[in-house]
Amino acid sequence: MSSSGKPVRLALLGCGTVGSEVVRLLHDQADDLTARIGAPLELAGIAVRRINKSRGGVDPALFTTDALSLIKRDDVDIVIEVVGGIEPARTWLVEALRAGKSVVTANKALLAEDGAALHDAAAEGGADLYYEASVAGAIPLLRPLRESLHGDRVTRVTGIVNGTTNYILSSMDATGAGFSEALDEATELGYAEADPTADVEGFDAAAKAAILASLAFHSRVTAADVFREGMTAVTAGDMASAQEMGCTIKLLCIAERGPDSAGQESVSVRVHPAMIPRSHPLAGVGDAFNAVFVEAEAAGQLMFYGRGAGGTPTASAVLGDIVAASRNRLAGFRAPSESNYAHLPVRSIGEAVTRYHISLDVADRQGVLATVAGVFAQHEVSIATVRQSGREEDAKLVIVTHGAPDADLAATVEELSGLDIVRSIASVLRVEGGS
């Protein structure tokens, strides 16, 4: 494609780990990007919090602390946001979109909490909204869901979308380490933040799950709709139990489409640790990598895998969106707009059909197994396997169920905890990927 000569002007909001890599790639790949787009890309300005901070190699004349004024400039065509957080990012991006300026963002928290405001502003202003970098870093995932699979019916999306937790669980699986030990290792290697709460408690994954579900099922899903359970309670003993079953444990985001208890079409979206068979494609995803497994009626099973975080991988996804938005502006057309025609409701975790792995410390006396089995039968939960081990103070029962509504499984566990023959419930983990 030949160059039109007139540059596409960019406003960059944020110049941290990702933003600085965006600037570097814009410079290093300038000629190739011009050839792909048909016009050169130029930075009109960079909004930062602290203007005097050293950001080696970047022209200091580009920096400003007034993001809103930068966005409103007439010579800005595309606004790139890599600051994160809800406000002031929401105000900035709504302003840009309503003014007809394309937006490229990596802000998963904002999209998951109030993506509707951004999509509505994009429709109002006739502007493009791209956010490939908000989920799974460099992995091309959102555009296939939004465009390539638009003619298909996606039924389920299962993913490992947080590199920190995947590193921790992979380390526990490989070495037998406990959670705290594996977290310390992840922190030392730079995979975990000083405050890892957003990762290990599942908030990061829940935001990404909401975005994936919205795209996959053509319905608006927010982070508040996502059932979330962190992985801090996973122990070395849980991992050993998983290994005995031929499984491993991963923090999964799961979004699926199907009928609720009344037969109405709906979606279930959840994030929690789960045992999965080692034969499952996600079981072999190690280190800090991400992977998403998509199931669709016509396409069948699809796997997307790669680096899900880090400055350079995320910047790669941002650059891809910049190219797409720039080409659209030059050609005079828009990207596909939000598809939320289905308006499917989100059903509660209680209606999600799953399986439980339950480890009980029990009294070592006759009739224990029969009493425990009776509780499962009372709640119409079928037992798949039972394993007894130990004697006296070390007596244990490990039970794996067949699929049942989560509410029935939870009620079973609650009743078991009240039995005098059950000294304690050592652990409860969901099991995915089996019958």
Can you characterise this structure?
The protein has 435 residues and is of the alpha/beta class. It has 14 helices and 17 strands. Strands 7, 8, 9, 10, 11, 12, 13, 14, 15, 16 and 17 form an 11-stranded mixed beta sheet that branches. A 6-stranded parallel beta sheet has the order 3-2-1-4-5-6, with helices on both faces. Strand 14 (383-389) and strand 15 form a beta hairpin.
Keywords:
435 residues; 6-stranded parallel β-sheet; 26% strand; elongated
Outline of the structure:
The protein is α/β, with parallel strands linked by helices and 435 residues long.
Shape, please?
A: elongated
Given the structure, what is the number of helices?
A: 14
Low-confidence stretches: none
The Cα radius of gyration reads 24 Å
Oligomer: single chain
Number of strands: 17
The chain-level structural class is: alpha/beta
Mean pLDDT: 93
* Strand proportion: 25-35%
Distance between the termini: 52 Å
Largest sheet, described in full? 11 strands, mixed
Topology:
Elements: E1 8-13, H1 17-28, H2 30-37, E2 41-47, E3 63-64, H3 67-72, E4 78-81, H4 89-98, E5 102-105, H5 108-125, E6 129-130, H6 142-148, E7 154-160, H7 163-175, H8 179-188, H9 197-200, H10 203-217, E8 227-228, H11 236-244, E9 247-259, E10 265-277, E11 289-296, E12 300-307, H12 311-331, E13 353-362, H13 368-378, E14 383-389, E15 396-401, E16 404-405, H14 406-417, E17 422-431
Parallel strand pairs: 1-2, 1-4, 2-3, 4-5, 5-6, 8-10, 10-17
Antiparallel strand pairs: 7-9, 7-11, 9-10, 11-12, 13-15, 13-16, 13-17, 14-15
